[in-house]
Amino acid sequence: MASIPAYRSGASLLNQMAATAVPVGAVAVWHLGQESVVLKGGGMTIYIDPYLSDSVNEVTNGQSPRKFASPLQPHEVTNADAVFITHDHLDHLDPWTLKDLAAASPQAAFVCPVHCIPMLTDIGIARERIHGVNAGQTHRVGALQFTPVAAKHEEFTVDADGNHAFLGYVFRLNGVTVYHAGDTIGFRELAEELEKQDIDIAMLPINGRDFARFAKGLVGNMDFREAVELGRHIGADLLVPLHYDLFEKNTENPAYFVDYIQRYYPQQKFKMLVPGERMLYLSERDE
User: Fold this and answer.
1) Which residues pair with residue 240 across a beta bridge?
2) Could you tell me the pTM of the whole model?
């Protein structure tokens, strides 16, 4: 494992989360690497796709593929009110992370695609803590309102009951609307759905896809160009790239993302978060 330190980690990071006061109309954001994000606002702290372990190493019994250690260990996460899973790939639904996180945060609810419910119960998370959801349904957990959005991880995967295996989420929290795309390519129906949502922050994967990676079983996402164009189409105020930093064989140079914005949309706001960094975002939509 590369010894790249997180900006903030462990007790220091958790103390910062606890001490961060979030005014109405704002949300605090922490990036934990890959697509792992923490949002805080309205008295709630939510984790999205927490991948905090070295589970790939556990599975392969080989050297860790991570480029940096997780800013938090699963057993340290005592502050989760809700945990959202976008799909069942290991770097998004990680049993090693979720099992210890669930024990450390007994108050946390878990939200996931319907077909992921057995995966969570199999690791000992009580069924009453798990909320299986599908695209298009709007729900509320405490102060948080959220709507799952269908994603194409290159293609749609839908079961016989019409439940999507890959989801993104539109979160409405404390007066701010955040879209976390999960893993997806850009496509017309997604753009049409999101442009109705008045997105403040769009968190989008940029690692792309290609034949060579697909042949090795690495299903792809939108690239930096698609991510910027989707964010622009839906009118997002702030673009945040994800899914480019953790695994050496499935990364992207985020400078391409920055260069594309500077070339074509120089007034578009964006933020590249390093692992363990905090951002406080105040919505400007009603000002």
Assistant:
1) 203
2) 0.93
